[in-house]
Amino acid sequence: MFRIQWSYEQPVFVWDADGRPRVWTPDFYLKQFGVYLKVCGSQDFDYEYRKRVFSQNGYCVIFLHMFKGKNKWERHLGKSLEVFLEFRKIAFSRALKEIKIK
Asked: Of 12, 39, 77, 80, which sits with the fewest C-beta atoms within 10 Å of its C-beta?
């Protein structure tokens, strides 16, 4: 399939919306990309709160909604990684330009 190195439930430190320290464990960490995956199994759970908290703490987390259809997660993961890598490439290019200017 993708042949991606991963680790399972690697803990991350976050400050929640109320400013409290928390340790959360996204389901997977993709080592080559520096990206976390959260497998979403229920449509009744509010994943938007977790998305917001992860983002505010500087973590890139891709949420895979397993309940939205069989095997759609593979395409979603591939597209999300493409977008993330393109964003990272642009950010890296900008940082290099800043270094060269100084």
From this structure: 39
Domain range spanning residue 86?
A: 6-101
Burial 35-73 (b: 16+ CB within 10 A, else e): bbbbebeeeeeeeeebeebbeeeebbbbbbbeeeeeeeb
Q: Is residue 87 one of the residues assigned to a domain?
A: yes
> How many whole angstroms from its chain centre is CA 13?
14
Could you list the mean pLDDT of each consecutive 10-residue stretch along the chain, which spans 102 residues? Answer: 81 94 94 88 81 92 76 80 86 83 64
* Residue 12 in domain: yes
Please tell me the distance from the alpha carbon of residue 13 to that of residue 22, in angstroms, as a whole number. Answer: 6
pLDDT in tens, 36-65: 999 887 777 778 899 999 999 999 899 887
Residue 1 falls inside a structural domain: no
